[in-house]
Amino acid sequence: xxxxNPLRLSKxxxxxxxxxxxxxxxxxxxxxxxxxxxxxxxxxxYSFLPLGLAVLHKxxxxxxxxxxxxxxxxxxxxxxxxxELWHESGRWDVYGPELMRLEDRHGHGFALSPTQEELITSLxxxxxxxxxxxxxxxxxxxxxxxxxxxxxxxLLRGREFLMKDAYSFHSTQQSLQEHYDxxxxxxxxxxxxxGLEYRPVEADSGQIGGKVTTEFMALxxxxxxxxxxxxxxxxxxxxxxxxxxxxxxxTVDGLQKLHTPGVATIADLxxxxxxxxxxxxxxxxxxxxxxxxxxxxxxxxxxxxxxxANNALGGFTLxxxxxxxxxGLVKGFMGPIGLPQNVRVVADKALKGxxxxxxxxxxxxxxxxGAALDKDFSIETWADLSAAVPGDLCPACGLPLKGAxxxxxxxxxxLGTKYSVSMGANYMDEDGSEKPFLMGCYGWGVTxxxxxxxxxxxxxxxxxxxxxxxPAEVAVIPLTVGDSEVEPAAMRIAAARAxxxxxxxxxxxxxxxxxxxxxxxxxxxxxxxxxxxRGLEAxxxxxxxxxxxxxxxxxxxxxxDQVLRTxxxxxxxxx
Length: 575
Ligand code: ATP
Ligand code: MG
Fold this sequence. Notes:
Number of helices: 15
Number of strands: 32
Radius of gyration: 29 Å
Strand content: 25-35%
Low-confidence stretches: none
Bound molecules: adenosine-5'-triphosphate, magnesium ion
Structural class: alpha+beta
CATH superfamily of the largest domain: Bira Bifunctional Protein, Domain 2
C-alpha cells in the first residue's frame, strides 16, 4: 500500500508520460512505463516507482497468503550462491550463459541465483534428518537473475525479476503428490485473486529436471507460449501436447515416381498435386543427440516440436544448407526410399496409420506418391515429434483442440530425487535406512504475473487494475483546486473513506480536468469519484468504474456510503 492514506497526488512521485516508449511492443510494457509504475535501467532490468511498488507488494502479498494457507513457511535465501553448489548438482556447466557468474577478490566463483534448488538442498541436507520431521515446505520471494538471450516485453521476460519459489521435502510419493496438488490449487487461487484468466497446462520440465509438471498460463496474445486446449478440460503446451494429428490419406495404385520440377516446399507440392498439405509428408534432416545423421518424417501440415525432438532423440539440430549438400540429400526432395544406409530414420507416430505416403524421391525434382509403408520402405523408430496445432484431436476426448497464447506465470514440478541424490541430501527412514528426499519445487513469477494482469486488464486509455492489486482503490478527483466548495467536499470524502479502511488517493494537483481524467484512466484506479462545481450545486458527485467505464451521478450525502459498499463488495470477489 502507498504509505499515507489518503494520499495526495500532488506529493506523489508519479511522472506519467503522454508518449509511448519507443521500444515497447506490448500493452503491459507500454502502460507500466507511461503510468509511472516502472523505469528501465538496462535491457531486462527495471526500477519500481512508488505506484509500481504498491502493486508489486500487493501481488507478493497475495502469493504469500496462499503459500501460508497451505502450510509452506516463508524464509529468505541469499541471491549470491557459491559455485561449488552448482558443481555438485552438475548445473554449473549445463545451465549455460543464462547463469550470471561472478568472482570475489579471492577468485572464488559465485552465481546470481536464477532458481534455488541447490541452495535449499544444501541448507536442509545436514539439518533435516528424520522421516518424522517430513514433509517440510519452505518458500521465499527473492530477486532472480537470468541472462536471457532476448530480454523483452518489459517485466514479462526480464534479466532481473522477482520470483516466489517454494521447495518441499518428502519421504513418500503420496506426500509429494498431496503437496503438489495443494500448490496447484493455490496457484489457481492466486490467479483468481489477481483477476487472471488462466489455464493449467501439461508442460515440459526443461532445465530443472523431474517429470511431473504443470504450467500456469495467463491467457494473452502477448504470451510467448502456444497452447492447445479443449472444453473437456485438457490443456497443454503445443511443445508437449500428445495430440492426435489428423494426417489425410492420398491413395493411388502402387508406387509412382512423379516429375515435380521446382516443387521443393510442402505448399508447392500440395498445390502441384491438388491435395491438402496434411496428405503430404515433410522430411527434416539433422543430427541427433549421439551425433548421428537423422532424417525425421512428420505430417506435412505440422511443424517439428523442438522440445519433443530433443526428448525423443536426446537432442536434435537441423543440418545447415552446406551440411545437407555434403550429406548427399536433396533439399525439398527427401523421402524414406533410397536414403543412404548410415542415416537414422525416425517418424512421427501420427504417420503410423498412413499406408501410403506422398514424399520426396531423394532425387532433384522428383517425388513419390503411393509409397507404401512396410513394402516400399520401413521405419525403424516412431516417436511423438510434431508440435500440436489447433484442430488436432484432443487426446482426452477426441474433439478438435482450440488454440490460445499464454504467459507462463507459474510452474509446479515434482523433482523426485534429482537434487537430493546429486547433492547427497538424505534422511533416516522409519526402518533406519538412509534415503534421498523426494522433492518438489514451485515457482511463481511475481513481476511477470503483475505484467500479465496488465495484459488482461487494459484498454486504449490505460490500465484497469483489478481491485485486489490496484495501487489504491479509489481516486477522489476535485475538478477545481482552490474552490471554496469543491476542495472541502473532496477532502471530506477522501478522508472518510481512508478512515473506513479504503485506500484513497486525492488528485489535489493544480491541473486541468482533462489531465486529471487522462491520468486517472492511465494509472487505472478501479474507482473514481469526480467532484465538480456544477455537480455540487445539484448536490451530486460522479462515480465511475474504470473497468466498465460506467458513470453514475450520486447524491453527495450518500456518496461516502455508496463507495464504501461498492468497494467492500468488490473486495470479496478477490478473497
Ligand atoms: P520461461 O520458459 O518463460 O523462460 P521458465 O520455465 O524458464 O520460464 P521457471 O524456471 O519455471 O521459468 O521459473 C518460474 C517462474 O518464474 C516462471 O513461471 C515465470 O513466471 C518466472 N520467470 C521465469 N523467467 C522469467 C523472466 N526471464 N522474467 C520474468 N519472469 C520469469
Ligand atoms: Mg517454467
